């Protein structure tokens, strides 16, 4: 079955950096675009970044453009999110999923908490 395991979150000061990782299994990873989403309590989950199969193209929410970078390693079934110049409004639980503009799987992992605070 599909499994998505996110890691790498934590507490960081404004302006700091974090690198999130997502290990995927249960599907043919290299055949799918992959994406990162985030959610804060009381709000809908929002798409943050996406990368096509083989990493040919990427797409970012306007709020993170120029600060976040999504990448993938098909040999390891991993997708990453490098987050730089973090802001308090980036505080959220971050999730990964397959898909480009919408999540492909109804299943979601446990996510990883990112807290940006001084």
Contiguous low-pLDDT stretches (5 residues minimum) are none
Class from helix and strand fractions: mainly beta
Tertiary shape: globular
Strand content: over 45%
Number of helices: 0
Measured distance between first and last alpha carbons? 40 Å
Largest sheet: 6 strands, mixed
Task: Report on the architecture of this protein.
The protein has 118 residues and is mainly beta. Helices cover 0% and strands 47% of the residues. It contains no helices and 10 strands. β5 and β6 form a beta hairpin.
SSE topology:
Blueprint: E1 3-7, E2 10-12, E3 18-25, E4 34-39, E5 46-51, E6 58-60, E7 68-73, E8 78-83, E9 92-98, E10 112-116
Parallel strand pairs: 2-10
Antiparallel strand pairs: 1-3, 3-8, 4-5, 4-9, 5-6, 7-8, 9-10
Short recap of the structure:
This protein is mainly beta. The protein contains no helices and ten strands. Strand 7 and strand 8 form a beta hairpin.
Throw out a few tags for this protein.
10 strands, mainly beta, six-stranded mixed sheet, 118 residues, four-stranded antiparallel sheet
């Amino acid at each position: 079955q599909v499994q998505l395991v996110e890691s790498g979150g934590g507490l960081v000061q404004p302006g700091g950096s974090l690198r999130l990782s997502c290990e995927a299994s249960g599907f043919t990873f290299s055949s799918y675009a992959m994406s990162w989403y985030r959610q804060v309590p009381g709000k809908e989950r929002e798409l943050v970044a996406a990368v096509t199969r083989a990493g040919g193209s990427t797409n970012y929410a306007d709020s993170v453009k120029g600060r976040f970078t999504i990448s993938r390693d098909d040999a390891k079934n991993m997708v990453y999110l490098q987050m730089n110049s973090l802001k308090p409004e980036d505080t959220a639980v971050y999730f990964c999923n397959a898909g480009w503009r919408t999540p492909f799987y109804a299943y979601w992992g446990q996510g990883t908490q990112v807290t940006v605070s001084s």
